Amino acid sequence: MDKARLRERLLERLESDLELARRAAQTAYEAATHEENIAENKYDTLGLEASYLAAGQSRRVEEIHQALAAWRQLPLQPYAAPRGITLGTLVQLADDNGDEQWLLLGPDGAGLKLSDEQRDVLVITARSPLGAALLGQHAGDEFEREIAGRKRRFEILAAF
Q1: What is the pLDDT averaged over residues 128-132?
Q2: pTM value?
Q3: Residue 137 in contact with residue 84, Cβ under 8 Å?
Q4: What kind of fold does domain 90-159 have according to CATH?
């Protein structure tokens, strides 16, 4: 699996999300500042609600900008056993039920799902419990981690 190609897909997805968030922020800003939304009394909160929405959308735009910058700056190095799993490592993981998943450990963009011709890859960060547990581990290692209130056992099948 080509990590550079996965990163390109991730960047395309983030850029698409950024454009959507920009449009949503602009729409919310226009609603917040439109003359018809000026409060006529203390119970008329449409303009206030629209301004809260605009602020939230603006924060989302900034978060996506930061994710894009972090992924663009991340050097994608091949997995090196002495170093263990680091940001940018692609990991094949099996849980205690034998279910396998592919994870791309990154600086941001957690929860995004990417696909190539053969498999789906989930982006996670080192801030997540699973991501934190993976840092420094090696292919073949096993570890336990509490996730969603349940202790689970994992095995690292491969790292790239």
Answers
A1: 93
A2: 0.83
A3: yes
A4: Chitinase A; domain 3 (3.10.50)
